[in-house]
């Protein structure tokens, strides 16, 4: 948009330079003198001086059309839209046919002041003229779409009650770009003091955010700006924008910092191919930590700034992909935020129909795996000015954003508001757990993997924290999940849980105890599945079986017994046979996976050795199980 202003302004100056040799609409010499001096000031880029001289020119003769028009252009270039619109309207009133371009320019200044109906009339008038350039026709049509959308949006407002986050977060300086962890225990945001951007954080105690403190001397620097951050759902990884750093590939690059205990490690550049010699910024990391959305002006996009994404592979971050024409336009798209449901994407744009400036939009992932055309969040969430930097809580009920249009503490302040139902993401919750040694209860750093049992694919892969053994993962509700936790020297942990029917978004808490690899220790394989009275392994068992294969590969001296058990429904003979065949199916899978059969035995125990009384359906389900036991190490 700023580039367009500059181009149009230079064209206008050229036209006025030619016009100076012609007759003006005034004979007032004082007005002409100030008009000529203003042109000289413009040539020297002294725009404030030019504004003052042009004001003198129109004061000397209020019917001096050229001075009104030029004053409007200088004010417009300086983004002083309201007085610019007044000057353009003065020129049009004096002579409606003076310059057809004034109708486009005045509309462009009226929209930022929410003057949509007069802007629409001026745009429609502009399009009645012939010989308009294709670029200007396209721009006028875009502004018409903005005006029509805005008139309808204002007539049908959405609920919007922003609440200032208070003096513990906001100051007389600028605060913006807030992000919270999934459990809303920590908020990190950017504060700008004397043109230097740094990160600050606030911890939540009870329902109250505490006074914000400086995030870290390791991440914040006195010489460079840090901002536009995204925090992983568990709060352990911070992705952020660093500009003009000596290790950067371009003007602004994306960096990563990892939290170790209560301290942050030194950040490092994410590197190529994600960073380039261009401009990469405003990262947003997916819930599983494996897809990064960001903004770039690199080649191959649709317009100025586009939103791109990159996937984390075994070889590092993949070559970035453009999010495509259902997100990006020939204008600017910025401030991406991928919600933890991984299917609801928020961003700002001045290319899609909106109320002016940059508006906030939401795009949803379709059944075909493609992002759908975005939906404007509506009025008054969006206004005639710029809106950006929207982030949501994991439960999707509330949003954080920054504004300087509301009465606050000064500059940009951070606010929260309740999201309208129509633009909320899918329901998610978070699984929070701790991993400890079963004997000593000491916290353990362990590999944590959560699997979508229907798709048989991992949705979360990370490590519990070294200092506290904690992990946190956000998960969409309405699915069944498998959980595997492993650490060298220990038996892996297996469990499954269901988030089907969960509607209150309540957190799911787990406490995991890992047993050392010792003879006699057992693991119940809770993600091995069979149909009723069948012994064929179901497809959703594959992830668990592969985990067992990996365990045997990592511990080449270990020998195990695979054990099958049933409930007490049916005859003793049938249950004994079924348990043996189920244990045998697991044994056979391991042998096919090249686990030496000399390290394996299998046995069925039928209805013997129940772990719960066979008095309820729930207890009988517990007794129908497959285990493995260490028989040699």
What is the element layout, followed by pairings?
Blueprint: H1 2-19, H2 29-43, H3 47-60, H4 65-77, H5 81-94, H6 101-110, H7 116-126, H8 134-155, E1 163-164, E2 174-180, E3 186-193, E4 196-205, E5 208-209, E6 213-214, E7 226-231, E8 237-243, E9 252-260, E10 263-264, E11 268-269, E12 280-285, E13 291-296, E14 306-313, E15 316-317, E16 321-322, E17 333-338, E18 344-349, E19 359-364, E20 375-376, E21 391-392, E22 398-403, E23 413-418, E24 428-437, E25 447-452, E26 457-463, E27 470-476, E28 480-486, E29 493-498, E30 508-514, E31 522-524, H9 542-554, E32 559-565, H10 572-592, E33 600-604, H11 617-623, E34 625-632
Helix pairs in contact: 1-4, 2-3, 3-4, 4-5, 4-6, 5-6, 6-7, 7-8
Summarize the structure.
With 633 residues, this protein is of the alpha+beta class. 25% of the residues lie in helices and 30% in strands. The protein folds into four domains: 2-155, Serine Threonine Protein Phosphatase 5, Tetratricopeptide repeat (Alpha Horseshoe), CATH 1.25.40; 173-423, 6 Propeller (Neuraminidase), CATH 2.120.10; 427-516, Immunoglobulin-like (Sandwich), CATH 2.60.40.2190; 518-633, OmpA-like domain (60s Ribosomal Protein L30, Chain: A), CATH 3.30.1330.60.
